[in-house]
Known about the structure:
- By secondary structure, chain A is mainly α.
- In chain A, 70% of the residues lie in helices and 0% in strands.
- In chain A, helix 3 packs across helix 7 (145-152).
- By secondary structure, chain B is α+β, with helices and mostly antiparallel strands.
- Helices cover 39% and strands 16% of the residues of chain B.
- Chain B has a four-stranded antiparallel β-sheet with strand order 1-4-3-2.
Amino acid sequence: MTAAGTHVDAPDFEQAVLHHQPRIFRFALASLRDRDAAETVTQDCLLRAHKAWPEFRGEASVHTWLMQIAVNLVRDAARSRRFQFWKRADMSDADAAAWIPDPALSPEARALARQQIEAIWSELGSLPERQRTVFLLHFVEEMTGPEIEAATGISKAAVKVHLFRAVHKLREKLGDKR
Amino acid sequence: MSVHLTEEQITSWLIGEREREYHVHQCPDCSEKIEAAQQAFANFREAIPRLRPRTQRALFPALATAAASLVLAAILLHHPQPTVEQPFYQIPFVAPPAPYERTEILRMELPVATLTAAGFDVQPYDPAATIPADVLVGQDGRPHAFRFVNISK
C-alpha cells in the first residue's frame, strides 16, 4: 500500500509470480528453445509485470496479461537472436530421454510417446513464429481464443487460421509416429 | 457408418471446430485419431520443462578451448613461471559479458600439443600432456577470461 493511495498488493503479486512463473518459463522455453534465453525472458517478464502491477486493472486475467508481456519479450528475443547462427543451429532437436512418460505405460507406448514429443518439438521449430506462438498458447498454456487474441494482438479469425495450420503440420509430422 | 472425417476435419476438431459430432462418437477410427493427437499434445505440454537441446553448446567447448589455448600460449610467453590461482586475465578480442549475461567457470585441460602447434616451446615436450586452467565462459559459450590453475613449472 502506498501513501498516495495506489493499491500495490505485494503478497498478491508474489502469489501471481509463484503461480505463473513456471508457465511463462515453459512458454519461453518452447518458443526460444534455449534455457538461458527462456530464463532471461521470464525474469524480464516478471520485472516488467512488477513495475506495471499498480496499473493492472484486471481487464484481462493475470495469466493473459503476463503472457501478453511474455509474447512480446519472446518476439524481441527471437529477433535479437536471429543472427546468432550457432544458437539456431544447436536447437534443432530435443532430448526426450530427459522426460519420463507415465510409468504405467508399456515400454512400447513410452517409446512412442517420446518419439511423438521429439517430432512435435522438431516440427515446432520450423513453424512460422505466429503459428508456433498460437499453438503453444492454445495447447500448452490452454488459453482460449479470446485470451490468445488479447495476448498476441492477432485477430480471432487469424488465430484460428494459424492454429489450424500449425496443428495440421504437426499432425502430418506425427503421422508416421502412430 | 457414415464416411470418415477428412484429415482437415480432424484438425478442425482438435482446434475446437466440432463437425459431425455424432459420427465421431460412433466411429472408433475417427475418435482414435483425435484422441491420439490430443494425447500427443498433452504429453508434449508435460514434457517441455524437462526437454533440453541435445546438441546445445556442443560447438562451444571446442571453440572456447581453442581460443583459450591461443591466449594462454600468449600469456605463457610473457609469464614463464605462472603460479597457482592467478587472477583472471581478460581475453582482449572478446567483448565483455553483458550486464544481464550469466557466466560460468569451466575448468579445462589445455593440450600442450595445442600450445606447441601455436608456436610455443613447451619443455619438457610431451604432446599428450595438458595444462589446467579455469576459463570464464559467457552465456553464448564464448570465453571471456581465464586463469592458471596449479601450474608448477
